[in-house]
Prior knowledge:
Blueprint: E1 3-9, E2 23-24, E3 27-28, H1 29-39, E4 45-50, H2 53-61, H3 82-94, E5 101-105, H4 114-125, E6 130-136, E7 146-148, E8 154-156, E9 175-185, E10 199-202, H5 214-227
Amino acid sequence: MTTVCTICARGGSVGVPGKNIRSLCGKPLIVYSIEQALAHARIDSVHVSTDSEEIARIAEQNGADVPFLRPTELATSTAAKVPAIIHLVEYLEQNGATVDTIVDLDPTSPLRSPEDISACLDMIEGGAASVITAYPADKNPYFNMVELAEDGTARLSKPPSEGVFVARQAAPEVYAMNASIYAWRRDALLPSVWDNRPALHVMPRERSIDVDSEIDFKLVELLICENGRVRN
Length: 232
């Protein structure tokens, strides 16, 4: 079975400008994910999809394949990620590659472990069509997440059918997606992750920080630089 790793990195980040190649403890953020993929024994090749010449240069210098610059329509701030992955996989196949399994590592979530990647691949080999990753959420829509009604009042996002939950621990367990790893069987790679019924790999909170703000970046920097949380 051939497993390819895709890493998608736009050049036009809004929340943290230039975050994919911003130096984190001495090397660009995207390099952590490239190194994790290259070091994983069950990944056969590593490919980066980007619209940025600078990201492409850094990715290639660190051992990833960058077969093209991503088309503009797949690189806007509102463009979904999975179509860019499909575009990359179809390009590889059109140029002779065999793809049985796809594992996508988001460069903004570098705290994953090799065991997290293996767990996702185990689920695919065990029969799952696709896998997403998440952590136990610290807020719960049945207990302490609210939304505004049309009259401006607040209400629970998911009101219980009867009564109320008086403690978060009593409410149904929910998970927050961390964008760290996605995996698919090739025949299950469809435009939305919800187009099939994804399995869930639960990761601990400390490996689930997705860099989407300056605070996220500082937290990841703290964990990597002071605690050495990333392992290849």
